[in-house]
Amino acid sequence: IPTEMSNCQYLWAIDVSNTNVSGQLVDNINALPSSLSTIRMSGLSFVGRLPSAIASFPDLGALDLSGNMISGPLPTEIGSLNKLYSLKLDRNQITGLPTEIGYLDQLYWLDLDENHIAGSLPSEVGDLTALPSFPVREQKQL
Fold it and tell me: Whose CA is closest to 28, among 53, 60, 64?
């Protein structure tokens, strides 16, 4: 994604799913304007961790990074996205959730299927009272 995209201050949604965009996720996230309320980048070849810069999108309501190669635990900064209602991270290599996940009280869609989450989930997941279901099936072994 060209770095000039960050100048598009009135852009509220981006969907580059299933295109030829690839590379380090951090580079592509940093190229986006902070005005975004919807980011859809599924089915790409993004590698690396979800960067802490995800917190620079204060109006973000929907984040879809499913079907990439995102690895490691989610950053604690994910908890600052207090408008987030949909988080789709299925089919990645995510290994864990921070306790700050419990701050996302608007979240009603959370998909973590087919990742590498091992061990117990943080008890703060119980604070996500808007969630009607919580799919975390088919966790792959590291």
Answer: 53
What is the phi-psi region of residue 119: left when phi exceeds 0, alpha when psi lies from -120 to 50, beta otherwise?
A: left
CA atoms within 13 A on the CB side of 30: 7
C-beta atoms surrounding 135 within 10 Å: 12
- The terminus-to-terminus CA distance of the chain in angstroms comes to 30
Stretches in the chain below the pLDDT threshold 70? 135-142
Q: Compute the half-sphere exposure of residue 74: CA atoms within 13 Å on the CB side of its CA.
A: 26
Q: pTM score, two decimals?
A: 0.90
114-138, pLDDT tens digit by residue?
A: 999 887 888 998 899 998 877 666 6
